[in-house]
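Convert to structure. Protein one:
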Amino acid sequence: MDAIQSEIHTGDPVQVGDYEIIPQTRVLKIQFPGNHAVLIWNRPKAVIVKTSDGQESTLAVRDITRVIIWSMLAGGLLGAMLIRLMHRN
């Protein structure tokens, strides 16, 4: 097994009226050397929509939680740098 793997998983289809909805996720697996510990991170990727007449479209899913977490990290780092600059002698 590689130390880092990225895979796309397709979920079970769900029938909603004339549409078949199929979710997709991106899975990132990180295995740490020397032990059996594995970090698994699932993120939404897309939704495949199939109509009864055979048309298929893929709708990308924006992972808003990921955007918020990165924004919080950036805000914290920026705040720490500003505080350090203000208290500089």
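Protein two, convert as well:
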Amino acid sequence: MTRSENTDATILRLYETIASRKGSDPASSYTAKLLDQGTGKIAQKLGEEAVEAVIAAVAKDRNGMIGESADLLYHLLVAWADAGITPDDVLAELERREGISGLAEKAARGEG
């Protein structure tokens, strides 16, 4: 298995674990508790982790950036599961954008 395939498999396994916690007893896991607290709390945690990743990036803290990226990715996957979005949904969008310049893609969305 290549690093890319392994990465995809790791992310998919994590997503499946997160999705399986929906509706579980909030006392059973952090993920179940977070999902039970709802979209607002999930978004708050996602934002906190994004800020922490930005701080690590600005500080050029490689290890901090790795750890915060893992936290950010986890909370993003929780937000996806909460919204009914799968990794395949996001990968399909990335594939759709592949080969399109970022400027052209933003212009097509009306963001200039």
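The chain has a mean pLDDT of 92. Residues 101 and 107 are 10 Å apart (CA to CA).
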